[in-house]
């Protein structure tokens, strides 16, 4: 059996080779990504990129568990981390522990991720002390979209830089094994990476981080529009569109299915 990467392995990579991460939501994709990635995140971005929700606020614990189980069936070697959705950990430490423990038990994942707003580091410490590996998430926090009004990059003002830096330090000190840094200025990402003793995993946070993560359907070109920080490594939208257009033409012209795609297509010999 393949030895699976765990939280201490990711932590030990701080300042060494870059940590390769991607999101994953289903078994067959996880199987493909597993050969290349150190860590697969079952992100609550699943709500937006798979279920068509406007933001991540509507994502439920049940959705995260179902997708976490699927990813665990596909990934053998990469560490699998499941995002805790909005409303599942902010209510208090005991609530957070109960929900995180449920995710760990029902999915078999190696860790969870929490967006580390001001009240969350205390919860992270409580969880880590009780055996749950936690990844933090600072900077642009998508679950705060309704109080912030939109998804905005951080680090324009000194006040904002100090706030994000303090959240990153508190998250690292609470015992997180790694910290996602999303949507921040390069100088701030560098400062965080140089200050905290845990690996930083950047998304829209420059090359200064200890690792990188992208949302898989974004980097595979499934959508018309992608944010500035995404590089498209494939044109899945174009590939799917061309494939389906050809299929539709073939069905309408009765070119599909052909004889090779048909069961028992030879005429039976008459008796
Ligand atoms: O939900 C998600 O996909 C994430 C990553 C982008 C870090 O939180
Ligand atoms: Na997320």
TrEMBL record:
Essential cofactor(s): Mg(2+)
Function: Catalyzes the reversible reaction in which hydroxymethyl group from 5,10-methylenetetrahydrofolate is transferred onto alpha-ketoisovalerate to form ketopantoate.
Binding residues for Mg(2+): 44, 83, 115
Subunit structure: Homodecamer; pentamer of dimers.
Localization: Cytoplasm
Native organism: Brevundimonas vitisensis
Gene that this sequence comes from: panB
EC nos: 2.1.2.11
Name by which UniProt lists this protein: 3-methyl-2-oxobutanoate hydroxymethyltransferase
Family: Belongs to the PanB family.
UniProt cross-references to SUPFAM superfamilies, sorted A to Z: Phosphoenolpyruvate/pyruvate domain
Domain of life: Bacteria
CDD domains listed in its UniProt record: KPHMT-like
Gene3D superfamilies assigned: Phosphoenolpyruvate-binding domains
MF terms (GO), sorted A to Z: 3-methyl-2-oxobutanoate hydroxymethyltransferase activity
Textual note on the cofactor: Binds 1 Mg(2+) ion per subunit.
Record field: catalytic activity: (6R)-5,10-methylene-5,6,7,8-tetrahydrofolate + 3-methyl-2-oxobutanoate + H2O = 2-dehydropantoate + (6S)-5,6,7,8-tetrahydrofolate
Binding site for 3-methyl-2-oxobutanoate: 44-45, 83, 113
